[in-house]
Recover the amino acids of this structure.
């Protein structure tokens, strides 16, 4: 039961408090960015705000998590942590469409000092460092002066599915919902850098958002990309997500999109772009978010002395979205199976399905192609003749010929899981 105090808090959390100023409108495209603010984001949401619990089927046994809708601009989400917010997308959301709705898109922040409102008229994006001209761009400058581009792309946390690592590793115990697919609209990072004029000798570009560490000694969250990557014409600064402005918790008003790469690089509330003439050795590049430089970033538990490199491109994955472990089917009856796949940093070439635990594979039918960096739906159907237990599996091969591995990788950070998924069902 909720008490009155909690009700009031829950209301204030859901309340949007726009700062009073005129919305900014793109003159030709009718893109409007309206101020959003959220009251009381820093207040703790107690698990009493949960309406139900969800069971996540980890290797160490099922773990219960509350489902919450107490966060501003967010619908039902699996609550991993309150402050800073870590909210996971429930798996059934991926069954409903190839694009993940903004109000159920997962949320992950490192530091709890997140502005709970952003005034779009006062907001400026700085471009500085090893450039000919420093820029301070308003939202209007960006909407009016630079060509608009659009791209579907998967945003996936490096630690998505970490909860399935065995032996267990520390960090957020995500199931498979620390990912989502959206159609992003914005401007090319290259166009912004060209306006500033990158000087010869530039090696990397570093990005920072409006969030700050809770204690001054802690390292501000900053990530860098190689200069050629930053200028590849695909990396973009997004102001819209699935046709709407970004939810505050997903980085309003601007975020970086790095198609095909893990979203640790996708800086939210992007406010600062710094061109560097030497490699970035800040904590978040040199220490955190590094992976063993081995196939599948995999090592043996306890193995040390391995060369580490910054995490980078994503690898192919595929999932069932209409069945979970323990489902039971009527023996001999055809049942539809479907799910989603993505190729990582390349398109989906094929998705295959196995109903005999991986001994034989049949191709699944692929849904519409919205671009090589997005989710692709797949479907098939199966009739399980023999009564008893069956292991259903799905695997994706990307257009570079890379296929999901049949054994799980392991590393101490729980990064880059992409083993072939198995769902155990019963025919009765
Ligand atoms: N400014 C800022 N951007 C950030 C982060 C952050 O802590 N601060 N976390 C990164 C990480 S590790 C992830 S997984 C994604 C999560 O994006 P989402 O919350 O929109 O799903 O944001 C990335 N961008
Ligand atoms: Mo992440």
């Amino acid at each position: 039961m909720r008490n009155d105090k909690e009700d009031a808090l829950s209301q204030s959390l859901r309340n949007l408090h726009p700062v009073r100023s005129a919305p900014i409108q793109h003159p030709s495209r009718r893109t409007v960015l309206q101020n959003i603010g959220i009251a009381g984001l820093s207040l703790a949401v107690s698990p009493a705000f949960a309406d139900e619990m969800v069971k996540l089927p980890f290797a160490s046994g099922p773990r219960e998590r509350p489902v919450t809708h107490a966060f501003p601009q967010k619908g039902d989400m699996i609550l991993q942590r309150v402050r800073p917010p870590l909210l996971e997308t429930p798996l059934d959301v991926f069954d409903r469409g190839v694009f993940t709705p903004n109000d159920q898109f997962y949320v992950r922040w490192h530091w709890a000092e997140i502005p709970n409102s952003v005034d779009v008229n006062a907001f400026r994006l700085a471009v500085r460092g090893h450039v000919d001209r420093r820029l301070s761009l308003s939202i209007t400058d960006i909407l009016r002066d630079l060509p608009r581009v659009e791209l579907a792309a998967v945003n996936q946390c490096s630690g998505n599915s970490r909860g399935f690592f065995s032996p267990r590793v520390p960090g957020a115990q995500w199931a498979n919902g620390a990912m989502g697919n959206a159609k992003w609209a914005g401007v090319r990072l290259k166009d912004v850098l060209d306006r500033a004029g990158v000087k010869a000798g530039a090696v990397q570009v570093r990005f920072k958002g409006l969030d700050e560490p809770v204690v001054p000694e802690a390292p501000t969250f900053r990530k860098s990309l190689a200069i050629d990557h930053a200028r590849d014409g695909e990396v973009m600064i997004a102001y819209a997500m699935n046709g709407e402005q970004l939810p505050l918790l997903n980085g309003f008003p601007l975020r970086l999109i790095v198609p095909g790469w893990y979203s640790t690089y996708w800086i939210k509330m992007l406010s600062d772009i710094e061109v560097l003439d030497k490699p970035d050795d800040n904590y978040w590049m040199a220490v955190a978010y590094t992976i063993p430089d081995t196939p599948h970033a995999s090592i043996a538990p306890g193995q040390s002395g391995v060369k580490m490199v910054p995490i980078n491109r994503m690898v192919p994955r595929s999932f069932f979205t209409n069945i979970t472990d323990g489902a039971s089917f009527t023996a001999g009856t055809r049942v539809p199976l479907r799910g989603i796949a993505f190729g990582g940093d390349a398109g989906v070439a094929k998705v295959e399905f196995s109903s005999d635990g991986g001994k034989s594979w049949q191709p699944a039918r692929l849904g519409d192609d919205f671009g090589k960096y997005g989710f692709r739906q797949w479907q098939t159907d199966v009739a399980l003749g023999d009564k008893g237990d069956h292991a259903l599996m799905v695997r994706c091969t990307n257009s570079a010929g890379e296929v999901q591995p049949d054994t799980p990788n392991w590393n101490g950070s729980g990064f880059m899981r992409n083993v072939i998924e198995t769902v155990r069902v019963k025919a009765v």
Notes: The longest helix spans residues 4-14.
